[in-house]
Design a protein that fits this description.
Number of strands: 14
Helix content: 25-40%
Bound molecules: nicotinamide-adenine-dinucleotide
Radius of gyration: 20 Å
CATH architecture of the largest domain: 2-Layer Sandwich
Number of domains: 2
Structural class: alpha/beta
CATH superfamily of the largest domain: Dihydrodipicolinate Reductase, domain 2
Strand content: 25-35%
Distance between the termini: 41 Å
Number of helices: 11
Largest sheet: 8 strands, mixed
Strand order of the largest sheet: 8-9-10-7-11-12-13-14
Length: 319
């Protein structure tokens, strides 16, 4: 039986609770949130003790693994404290808002040799695995992606110093999916717009942005974001090769080749797969089916950080 604890019992943690609460071999032993009622609510539903600080929780309930789902600005030592104690981690994306924090956590994880999975959940769709197989060996020419939608409701999202903005917090999923399917990024140039979101208080993130990239394999890429798109948003990625155009929208894969269009729909819940893969890895003591390790998530984070830096400086940036 693996003892699992939780730091940050807000929105997305409810998704993890849903899957872990019905999973064999898992015992929920502790819930930590600076808003005590949230930890209490989880403990009432799933069992385990209530905490408002992570170190006392780690020391008292001695978990084998911890799920961390705090806002991007709030990575204030919970990963390093777990690593020091040999506790394995599943950490929600984005891993941080600044490079120093992300690199410090990466070093602590490396030193402690713990497992650290990052919540790039799209990687767990079976259709994404199929897309990877279809793209293998093909010369990728162009990648276009987008996360054009509305503004999430959590208070911290609209503050650059709390969320890092839409590129770091949300569109990071598309940057990561692009890296998973098409390889690494060599250079980033980005522009961002402000001024459309006039009725939201305490708001200083970009309304929209466009990030162009040179990929290491020579392909060109462009990913846009918008949080003012309240009428028909789109979250998708298109990959163009001479032989085929491969598109992911949500979990649906569309392949256009030889004059034919074929759609593949996912047969799995991506969050459930992500959680199962992590728990299996903790049980086995090795990476097993984890598809996003911290060391790789760091690379996706650095691309999004470079995009913000390019918007700020007006210069191309190597991530
Ligand atoms: N993978 C996905 O699909 C997905 C979806 C939504 C959110 N997320 C990510 O999950 C993270 C959390 O997002 P959310 O929507 O659940 O936010 P949320 O605000 O609903 O929940 C975050 C919780 O963390 C708590 N918290 C803050 N600082 C803390 C600390 N120092 N110690 C303990 N608890 C603390 C808050 O009180 C809150 O309850 C974000 O990084 C977000 O990007 C991922």
């Amino acid at each position: 039986m693996k003892r699992v604890a939780f730091v940050g019992c807000g929105g997305i943690m409810q998704e993890h609770y849903k899957h872990l609460s019905v999973m064999d071999g898992v015992k929920m032993v502790g819930h930590c949130d600076i808003i005590k009622e949230r930890a209490e609510s989880a403990a009432d539903r799933f069992g385990g003790e209530v905490f408002t600080e992570f170190e006392p929780m780690y020391d008292k309930v001695k978990p084998h693994a911890v799920f961390i789902a705090v806002p991007p600005y709030a990575h204030c030592g919970m990963e390093e404290a777990a690593a020091e104690r040999g506790i394995h981690l599943l950490i929600e994306k984005p891993i941080a808002i600044d490079r120093d924090t992300a690199r410090r956590i990466a070093a602590a994880i490396r030193k402690a040799k713990i497992l650290a999975s990052v919540g790039y959940c799209f990687r767990y769709y079976d259709t994404v695995e199929l897309a990877r197989k279809l793209l293998k060996g093909k010369a990728i020419s162009l990648i276009t992606g987008r996360w054009n939608g509305g503004m999430p409701g959590v208070w911290w999202w609209r503050r650059m110093d709390k969320s890092g903005g839409q590129i770091i917090e949300q569109t990071t999923h598309m940057f990561d999916l692009m890296r998973y399917l098409c390889g690494d990024v060599a250079e980033v140039y980005a522009v961002g717009a402000t001024g459309c979101m006039t009725r939201v208080e305490d708001y200083d993130v970009h309304d929209s942005s466009a990030v162009t990239m040179r990929m290491k394999n020579g392909a060109t890429a462009a990913i846009t974001s918008s949080c003012v798109c309240n009428n028909g948003g789109q979250v998708s990625l298109d990959i163009i090769t001479p032989e085929a155009t491969v598109s992911m929208a949500g979990g649906t894969l569309t392949v256009r080749e030889n004059g034919r269009t074929t759609e593949y729909h996912p047969s799995v819940n991506m969050y459930e797969e992500e959680d199962k893969a992590f728990i299996e890895a903790v049980q086995a003591g090795k990476r097993a089916r984890i598809r996003s390790l911290y060391s790789d998530a760091l690379k996706s984070f650095l691309v999004t950080w470079a995009a913000n830096e390019s918007i700020r400086s007006g210069m191309p940036i190597k991530p």
